[in-house]
Design brief:
The protein has about 180 residues and is of the alpha+beta class. Helices cover about 30% and strands about 20% of the residues. It has helices at about 45-50, 80-90, 105-125, 150-160, 170-175; strands spanning about 1-5, 15-20, 30, 35-45, 60-65, 70-75, 95-100. It has a seven-stranded antiparallel β-sheet, sandwiched between helices.
Length: about 180
């Protein structure tokens, strides 16, 4: 199934969603032709089975965990993320969303940048985050061959296509009831 979610965010880019476990709320992967970013999403109850396949081993990923409240962070896909999933599964986490580049050589730099852009963007949209600290994107040289802002736009598009609500703008009443800075 192909979904064009935020046509104004990246004109001409269409998010492609693969339903790996069958149902729309099961394990799914979102990407696009020519994109450098992938987003995997699914129910927290299935995370350990999905992580055991080794997709995230030795990868630094950005993750959003939640349901009505969310936590956004980054870490090693086979160490930090499973610990966070287990810690938050009983309180808030119903779905997981993992963002990572196709090329593992740029994982850490991209993860630092995306985490630093996602948290303030989610707060600005009125998302109900339980993060107590805001990460800021690092200052990278202008001569970098990576287009970090393009990767952020792709990640935002793919998160929305996967059903993650943190970047959907809230009404003033919804935003007033959200935690955050």
């Amino acid at each position: 199934m192909t979904t064009n979610v935020h046509p104004c965010a990246l004109p001409g880019l269409t998010a492609n969603m693969q339903f790996i476990d069958g149902p729309a709320d099961g394990y799914r992967r979102v990407d696009a032709l020519g994109s450098q970013i992938l987003v995997d999403a699914g129910p927290v109850a299935h995370f350990s089975r999905i992580a055991a396949a080794g997709t995230y081993r030795n990868r630094t990923v950005v993750y959003a965990l939640g349901g009505t409240k969310f936590y956004v962070g980054r870490g090693e896909g086979h160490k930090r993320v499973p610990m966070q999933v287990n810690a938050l599964a009983s309180s808030i986490a119903q779905q997981f969303y993992l963002i990572y580049p196709r090329d593992p050589r740029i994982d850490q730099r991209v993860a630092r940048y995306l985490e630093g852009r996602l948290i303030p963007a989610a707060f600005a949209c009125g998302a109900h985050l339980i993060n107590k600290l805001v990460a800021y994107p690092p200052e990278y040289c202008e001569d970098s061959q990576l287009d970090y802002e393009r990767m952020f736009s792709e990640a935002a598009l793919f998160l929305t296509a996967a059903g993650c609500p943190i970047l959907n703008p809230k009404t003033p009443n919804q935003a007033a009831n959200a935690d955050g800075f």
